Amino acid sequence: MISKNALMTIEYAGKLAQKLSGGEVIGLIGDLGSGKTTFTKGLAETLKVSETVNSPTFVLLKDYPAKIKDHKIHFVHVDAYRVENIEDIKSVGIEDYLNRDDVILVIEWAEKITEILPQNTILIKFKTLDEKTRQIKIQK
């Protein structure tokens, strides 16, 4: 998909969010400014997260109440940008959220923690084409 602006990225994320049922791990890969956080905001909006979603760069992980249809779930946003080793991310409790049907786990900079990601992680790659245009590719 080619996104020509942030709104398109949010809409694309919303379409993906509508297909989620709980238990998914979504790994976002791309350079700084390539649209990962914007995409995450689109997922959160569609999953009825009422708080403002920002990258948890310094705390690494944030857990937000969310909904899929009428079912309460956890929308867990991880930012692995500052992770130096796998113990950094384990220390904030990421493993507590893996393999749970009541969690949608979204990980920015997922390439830094691939060794703990489940095999069925949905990988989404972001590439900056120009100042506003992004290429977004979903891999399973």
- Sequence stretches where pLDDT stays below 50 over 5 or more residues: none
The termini sit apart by: 15 Å
- What is the fold-level CATH name, i.e. the topology? Rossmann fold
The CATH architecture would be 3-Layer(aba) Sandwich
Task: Give an account of the 3D structure.
Helix 1 (6-17) packs across helix 2 (36-46). The protein has one domain: 3-Layer(aba) Sandwich (Rossmann fold). The radius of gyration is 14 Å and the shape is globular. It has 140 residues and is of the alpha/beta class. It is 20% helix and 31% strand. A hairpin with a 5-residue loop joins strand 6 (122-128) and strand 7 (134-139). The protein has three helices and seven strands.
